[in-house]
Write a structure and sequence with these properties.
By secondary structure, the chain is α/β, with parallel strands linked by helices. It has 4 domains: 135 residues, 3-Layer(aba) Sandwich (Rossmann fold), CATH 3.40.50; 110 residues, Beta-Lactamase, CATH 3.30.450; 160 residues, 2-Layer Sandwich (Alpha-Beta Plaits), CATH 3.30.70; 248 residues, TIM Barrel. The strands form 5 sheets. An 8-stranded mixed beta barrel has the order 18-19-21-22-23-24-25-26, surrounded by 4 helices. Bound molecules: ligand C2E and magnesium ion (2 copies). The site of one magnesium ion has 4 residues, from β23.
């Protein structure tokens, strides 16, 4: 430790030297001039200063030293009568004073040591205060300090500046703080603060708006922490306030981007689902919050897009979005879900009727043409509605249901509206399972064929079989063809399924004839769908199968429905004509229930009409059905076509049909469809029902078209 000793009395110097030398490295001077010289080149830990020296007296001595070394801890010595001066020196920054000739070695040493310690502590305190001041001045945060006991609320300059206030402008009471808060958040701030004061939270933190003198509202984050006294009572809360307006603006922009559709500016799917879920949750708690959900899909948008281009397509979407927005009430939410799909959440909506009225209004709004640049475009939407009156549920599911309803509406035609019913959902869900199952059945051999005999009338001799596809699921349950054939047609699976049936039926027939002479003239009728013509190469398929199986073309009959013919008349007629040139025959299935426009019959190469079983079953007895059967028979006769009556179940039907000279029959009366391994058993069988007289005439050549005008041989 280095000691600066100012002492002009040699005796006292001697004394001090003895006492202090073991503890300090001592530099001794006798005048203030000497001090000045020493301090110019040295640093000391402590100074011991005699106030009365050669060149200076009293307080001036201390003040000069102090000026020379402001940081140096100084202990002053004074004479007995100079108490007042010594005290003044202490008041001006001396650490301590000693009265000359009244101290001991121990006393001096202690005074010097304390002087050094206290000076160190003071310096630290001063530095930390300075740091704090610097921090306050430099911080982006404003600082506040609430004295809970007195209610004063002290704030930093920066705090004021953040709110556009001059330093003195703030009232300094906790109420003044609360008054500057946005009323919407004031209660929340106060209760959050109270929670913290009650010890429920480790610190207080909340974002809220504060009034800015010039800019209106700014968002700030206030944070704070309670200070407790020894008894554990909260005495103060010290805290900060930072401006988060910008961050919140960025956040808000991000949220906006995440929740709006770029093209139309409407809410996007995510935002819509969120709002829908809120509405739904509200409804579950309160049945008065009924709402309507509309799913809209533009009709023929793809056509517009493809023919007029994407730009026009986009402009149409924007224009539709605008009209929809104008068509709803102010609180309703319009969203674009993607592509040409829109959704509307109408809230509150009183039941399905109100939702349907809204839909009708929207249809009307969209009915006006859209003028997009040079184009005038007509657009319409198909609308599916889910009306939630007492129960909400999962938003995704609600939207899916609305989608299902929309899809049904679309299938029924353009610009329609359909209300969702739970049954629709079951149908769709079931359909999906079914489709998966059917794919698997196709891949894994889950399909089989049954064969139903077709007989000549009236003798009931076997002329051929109709192949009927069967699907038995792995669990043993079978699915009706009237269910899975339409499904296969819709999904396109029919192409594969049809090819398999064709191959299987022809191969079976070829094999049967190789093994049994009695089978060599029998025909095989295979049902085909129009989709097989549209999407598969029917001509190639038949040619290939016939070649591979060796079955003569003349023994293959294709059964098509009227609808199948009409869906794709040009292609179908072309393929049928080419196949017929090879000898393949064509029968028109389920005749009578389809188009009822008979003019096309002549345009297609048809060999036989199959009277739909609904007519067969009405004879004898139902005069309407009788008349139709009669008309079909005479029409066929005029066109040189044969007639097969489907669904013959009773001897009376048979007798009646035979009486009308219907050439062929098929039905449970003769045989149900049988499995392939039972086919041999049918070959020699007599299909005549016991009740009927034996055949009177020769059988006709099954299924071949006669030349027009040629009459059936009368027996
Ligand atoms: P379809 O071609 O008119 O077949 C005749 C249907 O009538 C068969 O029903 C048959 O079992 C039924 N049937 C036969 N005799 C009687 C009877 O006396 N009374 C009654 N009530 N019904 C009788 P199935 O097998 O359920 O076939 C239904 C429809 O499924 C067929 O009608 C046909 O349109 C379609 N289908 C069946 N197999 C195939 C196939 O391989 N391909 C295509 N595309 N469609 C097929
Ligand atoms: Mg058929
Ligand atoms: Mg039929």
């Amino acid at each position: 430790m280095r000691l600066l000793l100012l002492e002009d009395s040699p005796a006292e110097y001697e004394n001090l030297l003895v006492w202090l030398r073991p503890h300090f490295q001592i530099d001794h001077v006798t005048s203030v001039a000497g001090v000045r010289k020493l301090l110019a080149g040295n640093r000391y830990d402590v100074g011991l200063i005699d106030l009365c020296v050669d060149d200076s007296r009293d307080l001036a001595t201390f003040l000069t030293v102090r000026e020379l070394a402001p940081e140096l801890p100084v202990v002053v010595q004074s004479g007995l009568q100079e108490d007042a001066i010594a005290l003044e020196a202490v008041a001006r920054g001396a650490q301590d004073y000693l009265v000359k000739r009244s101290f001991t070695a121990e006393l001096v040493r202690r005074a010097l040591r304390y002087a050094m310690e206290r000076a160190g502590a003071e310096r630290e305190l001063r530095e930390s205060r300075e740091r704090y001041q610097l921090a306050l001045a430099g911080a982006r945060d404003g600082i506040w300090d609430w004295n809970v006991l007195t209610g004063t609320f002290v704030v930093s300059e920066r705090w004021c500046a953040m709110l556009g206030l001059a330093p003195g402008e703030f009232g300094l009471e906790v109420e003044d703080w609360l008054l500057l808060m946005h009323p919407a958040e004031r209660d929340a701030v106060w209760s959050t603060l109270q929670e913290h004061l009650a010890g429920a939270t480790p610190h207080f933190e909340i974002e809220h708006r504060m009034h800015h003198a010039a800019e209106g509202w700014v968002w700030v984050r206030s944070r704070g922490m309670a200070v407790h006294d020894a008894a554990g009572r909260v005495t103060r809360v010290a805290g900060s306030q930072s401006d988060v307006t910008e961050r919140r603006a960025v956040e808000a922009e991000l949220v906006r981007r995440a929740t709006t559709d770029d093209l139309t500016g409407l809410a996007n799917r995510a935002a819509f689902l969120a709002r829908l879920q809120e509405a739904s949750d509200r409804l579950d708690g309160n049945p008065r919050g009924a709402f309507g959900l509309l799913f809209l899909d533009l009709d023929r948008f793809k056509v517009i897009n493809d023919s007029l281009g994407h730009q026009v397509g986009d402009r149409l979407l924007i224009a539709v979005a605008q009209r929809l927005s104008l068509g709803v009430r102010p609180g309703d939410l319009v969203a674009r879900l993607g592509g040409d799909e829109f959704a509307i959440l109408a809230e509150p909506v009183d039941g399905p009727r109100a939702a349907e009225e809204l839909a009708a209004r929207l249809h009307r709004t969209l009915a006006q043409p859209f003028v997009l640049g040079d184009n005038q475009v007509f657009a319409s939407v198909s609308i599916g509605i889910v009306a939630c009156e007492s129960k909400g549920g999962d938003a995704e599911e609600l939207l899916r249901n609305a989608d299902i309803a929309m899809y049904r509406s679309k299938r029924a035609g353009r610009a329609g509206t359909e209300l969702f019913a739970q049954a629709h959902h079951a149908a769709v869900a079931g359909r999906l399972d079914l489709e998966t199952g059917l794919r698997r059945a196709l891949a894994e051999g889950g399909l089989s064929l049954k064969y139903q005999p077709i007989v000549g009338l009236p003798g009931a001799e076997l002329v051929g079989f109709e192949a009927l596809v069967r699907w038995t699921q792995p669990d043993g349950r079978s699915v009706d063809p009237s269910v899975f054939i339409p499904l296969a047609e819709e999904t396109g699976l029919i192409v594969e399924l049809g090819a398999w049936v064709m191959q299987e039926a022809c191969a079976r027939m070829a094999m049967l004839s190789r093994m049994h002479d009695g089978a060599s003239d029998l025909a095989i009728s295979v049902n085909v769908s129009s989709r097989q013509f549209a999407h598969g190469d029917m001509y190639e398929l038949v040619r290939r199968v016939l070649t591979e199986t060796g079955l003569p073309a003349s023994r293959l009959v294709l059964e098509l429905t009227e609808t199948a013919l009409m869906e794709n008349p040009v292609t179908v007629a072309d393929v049928l004509t080419r196949l017929r040139a090879h000898g393949v025959r064509v029968h028109l299935d389920d005749f009578g229930i389809g188009y009822s426009s008979l003019s096309y019959l002549q345009r297609f190469p048809i060999d036989s009409l199959k009277i739909d079983r609904s007519f067969t079953q009405g004879v004898p007895g139902q005069s309407g059905d009788e008349a139709i059967v009669r008309a079909i028979l005479s029409l066929a006769s005029a066109l040189g076509m044969e007639v097969v009556a489907e669904g013959v179940e009773s001897a009376a039907q048979l007798a009646h049909l035979a009486g009308l000279r219907c050439g062929f029959g098929q039905g449970y009366l003769f045989s149900r469809p049988v499995e392939s391994r039972a086919l041999d058993g049918l070959l020699g069988r007599d299909f005549r029902p016991k009740a009927l007289p034996p055949a009177l005439e020769r059988p006709l050549a099954f299924g071949h078209r006669r030349r027009a005008g040629e009459r059936v041989a009368q027996g």
